[in-house]
């Protein structure tokens, strides 16, 4: 995901800077770099850091259109990387042996949602992503019901009605099939269905259970007068609710495991212990939870909240501004997953939580 994530330097400071797009980016940059300029290094390190600061100051930041950017620079090693972020993050700068990645690793995930606005004879498919919506297909059924009411009126009407229902069900099957093909080509997180209430119900009922399990909700809209803006507004409200439910379920599974099997850790102290034992499978980080200073051992990667001598190998540990960042990188290295989570769940009290591969005691 981040090609520079593995870049470390034991010789020169690696400078990481996060900036939100604001009206005075120059002043923001001056503010975040102030404590960095006061750090003390040896001559070669200072030269490298000064060159990093100069490079960043020369960026044409006012031309940036992303909500925020992360800049990672180490002149001594010859790296310079700018990462555009899809959400704002607090302004921050730090130096270390590698890029500080917690803000990018814990951004809310970018969801992809298919919106199908259905009627018995037509469907419009939309793709909603990163706060935008775009129509990707219009499906219209070739209507060939012959209105031939010769003979017994009641019988002919029933026959026409059954033909009409058959066409509708085939249309829903075809639309579902197209959704499935699109999903195979590029998976999406949710399906949201709009239209008149009876049509959306019928359509959702006709979906294969696999696709139906992706349905995040239905909304009422008139397909003949709908606008992209109206579809976006209704669908994104349903998507936000589904994302919130998913987050609450994730946190719930950690809370439940914590109380029953013990295969969970809550709070940074337990997470550090679990990470040192390579036990963390799924890590959740409350995005805005505070940084926690601590230390890491460069010899054996042991993480500690206190520092001093490494409990793993006895080497002298190196101080870091945030052990949450070290836990995140270690979990990723040990093939676990990491997700940032907004501040509206029982995890707020703990800052971090994780599902474990095995109980710690
Ligand atoms: Zn060690």
How is this structure best described in words?
The chain is α+β, with helices and mostly antiparallel strands. It has three domains: 1-103, eRF1 domain 1 (Translation, Eukaryotic Peptide Chain Release Factor Subunit 1, Chain A, 2-Layer Sandwich); 112-244, 2-Layer Sandwich (Nucleotidyltransferase, domain 5); 261-361, Ribosomal protein L30/S12 (60s Ribosomal Protein L30, Chain: A, 2-Layer Sandwich). The protein has helices spanning 25-37, 43-57, 102-105, 153-185, 197-206, 209-212, 228-259, 268-276, 323-333, and strands at 14-20, 68-74, 79-85, 92-96, 112-119, 122-129, 132-140, 190-195, 215-220, 264-266, 280-286, 294-296, 303-304, 318-320, 337-341, 352-356. The protein has a five-stranded mixed sheet, with helices on both faces. Strand 5 (112-119) and strand 6 (122-129) form a beta hairpin. Residues 297, 299-300, 302, 310, 312-313, 315 line the site of zinc ion.
Main sheet strand line-up: 7-6-5-8-9
Please write the string of helix (H) and strand (E) elements. EHHEEEHEEEHEHHEHEHEEEEHEE
Q: What would you call the shape?
A: elongated
Percentage of residues in strands: 25-35%
**Number of helices, counting only DSSP H or I runs of 4 residues or more:** 9
User: How much helix, percentage-wise, in residues?
Assistant: 25-40%
CATH superfamily of the largest domain: eRF1 domain 2
- Output the radius of gyration: 27 Å
Low-confidence stretches: none
- Examine the secondary-structure arrangement and name the CATH architecture of the largest domain: 2-Layer Sandwich
Bound molecules: zinc ion
Oligomer status: single chain
Major beta sheet summary = 5 strands, mixed
SS content category: alpha+beta
Our count of domains comes out at: 3
Number of strands: 16
Distance between the ends: 34 Å
How would you state the average pLDDT, rounded?
A: 92
Q: What is the highest CATH level, the class of the largest domain? A: Alpha Beta
């Amino acid at each position: 995901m981040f090609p520079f994530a593995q870049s470390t330097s034991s010789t020169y400071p690696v400078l990481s800077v996060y900036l939100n797009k604001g009206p005075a980016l120059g002043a923001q940059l001056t503010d975040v770099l102030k404590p960095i300029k006061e750090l003390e290094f040896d001559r070669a390190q200072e030269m490298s850091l000064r060159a990093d600061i100069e490079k960043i100051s020369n960026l044409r930041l006012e031309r940036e259109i992303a909500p925020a950017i992360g800049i990672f620079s180490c002149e001594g090693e010859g790296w310079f990387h700018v990462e555009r972020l899809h959400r704002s993050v607090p302004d921050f700068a730090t130096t270390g042996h590698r890029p500080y990645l917690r803000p990018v690793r814990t951004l809310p995930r970018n969801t992809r949602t298919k919106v199908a606005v259905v009627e018995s004879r037509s469907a419009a498919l939309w793709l909603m992503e990163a706060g935008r919506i775009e129509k990707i297909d219009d499906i219209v059924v070739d209507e060939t019901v012959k209105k031939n009411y010769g003979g017994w009126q009641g019988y002919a009407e029933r026959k026409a009605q059954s033909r009409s229902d058959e066409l509708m069900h085939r249309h829903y099957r075809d639309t579902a099939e197209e959704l499935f093909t699109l999903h195979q080509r590029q998976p999406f997180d949710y399906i949201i269905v709009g239209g008149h209430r009876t049509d959306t119900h019928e359509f959702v009922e006709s979906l294969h259970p696999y696709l139906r399990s992706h349905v995040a909700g239905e909304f009422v809209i008139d397909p003949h007068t709908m606008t992209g803006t109206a579809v976006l507004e209704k669908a994104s409200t349903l998507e936000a609710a589904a994302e919130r439910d998913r987050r609450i379920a994730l946190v719930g599974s950690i809370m439940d495991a914590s109380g029953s099997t013990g295969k969970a850790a809550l709070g940074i102290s337990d997470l550090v212990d679990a990470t040192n034992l390579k036990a963390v499978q799924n890590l959740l980080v409350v995005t805005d939870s505070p940084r926690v200073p601590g230390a890491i051992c460069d010899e054996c990667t042991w993480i500690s909240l206190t520092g001093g001598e490494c409990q793993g190998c006895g080497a002298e540990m190196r101080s870091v501004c945030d052990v949450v960042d070290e836990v995140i990188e270690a979990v990723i290295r040990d093939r676990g997953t990491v997700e940032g989570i907004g501040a509206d769940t029982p995890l707020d009290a703990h800052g971090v939580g994780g599902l474990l591969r095995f109980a710690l005691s």
